[in-house]
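#lab-general

N.A. 3:47 PM
ok so I finally got the sequence cleaned up, no stray characters, all 379 residues accounted for. can someone with queue access submit it? mine expired

B.Y. 3:52 PM
send it over

N.A. 3:53 PM
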Amino acid sequence: MFFDLNVPLPVPALISSITHQSKKGKGKQKPDEPSTASDTVTQCLFSSSQLAAIEARIDILVHLGYTVLALNQIMETKIDGRTHVDWFPGLIPKLKKRQGVLLLKRLTIILDDDSDKGNGVNAQNAAILSNYDILSLRPTTTNSFSQACLTHSLPSQQTAHIISMPVTFPRLPFHLKHTQVRSALKNGSVFEIDYSGAVGAESERRNWWGGSRELVRVTKGKGILLSSGANDDRELRAPLDAANLVTLLGIPQNLSRDAIALTPKSVVLRAQSRKTYRSVLSEPRLIISPQVGATDNHSVVINEAENVPEIITSTPNNHPSGVPSASKASSIDPNTIILSKKGTPQPRNTQKNKKRPIDDDHIPGTSGERSQKKKKKGL
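B.Y. 4:20 PM
back already:
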């Protein structure tokens, strides 16, 4: 399974606003009084030529061997809830369905000097960002690159899991610091390289090789995402051809294949965490221990690996704290938590908690120490 998470979309030919009258009002409304509330819906309309070009590009990518494609909406300004327009509601229903092919919705925001005041990626626009499957940022300044690596990569509902690098610029507009890059990789973000720059114009090829090598040097080939990003169908390449191309940058063969197969798969899975509470994917289970008679002193052992409760009973005379004997405790897996009858943690091995006998010979100021000093003086 191969992924191409950057299929750029053209700007829609027509963006229209439709106003719908709403009957809902704050107070009681008289039957003869007209309603004043209204809802404005903005729609994007792609022309027939644009739809044909998008269909042709998808067919080429499917023929080359890609099965997961992300249609990319690129924004050059910050997100504004009043003026933002989603392109996909007017596009996805018009595309024909292909068996075995998954289409994703991606939003890419270009960060520039104006983005220091705010780029719109915040909790206020969470409802708008939730409509997209993948969020990505393309920094163009030093401050925006620092924000993308340190702030926007933290787990939240507005996490940007892809940092698209402008490797076709004459020179990278920022310096790649190891601390920032490591923080982004630790948080789960990846750095994207578009291979279309390597097969484009001569000036773009020269810049692409220089910027891509610098990124590979800092990341050591880890956390690299390889996408097409092609605006022309002649710049598209097969997955393995693109993987062999980036091996010339110094990336090992196995990592180059992961950049187009395993790394984008992990990005798609991590992107689903934006729609969960605090980016938690796993669902916790509550295990209720079976009821035991109140006269028996018992302990509940919960295995963290298997989540299977076990009951260990013992007589109160032998074990007043309700902890099993040393032979019984030695057979318990070390990854278990022992809870007493009241639910308080108890030590696994009581032998280690016994106090050692105190020797007077080693206590300063005692008779044992003074006798040892006398013996030394006599020698």
